[in-house]
Backbone:
């Protein structure tokens, strides 16, 4: 089983064979980290909004008896045969 350093050097060779430059990797890593940071900030903002909604009291709904009212049907008249 290859060691982690052997795997890393093998990967570097594969990257060099494909012609991917270090600048390209650096740019990709920077973009990935920026996207990750933006996602974390958005998640934190949305969590704060949700928690603030849970803390504030909502208006009380009208009291219900627990039974639903039956739907009213439109009075259709059947034609005489």
Residues:
């Amino acid at each position: 089983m290859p060691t982690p350093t052997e795997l890393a050097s093998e990967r570097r060779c594969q990257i060099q064979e494909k012609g991917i430059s270090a600048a390209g990797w650096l740019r990709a890593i920077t973009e990935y980290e920026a996207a990750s940071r933006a996602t974390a900030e958005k998640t934190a903002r949305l969590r704060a909004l949700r928690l603030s909604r849970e803390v504030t009291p909502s208006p009380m709904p009208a009291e219900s008896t627990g039974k639903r009212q039956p739907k009213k049907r439109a009075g259709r008249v059947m034609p005489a045969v």
The helical segments are 4-18, 22-55. Residues 5 and 11 are 10 Å apart (CA to CA).
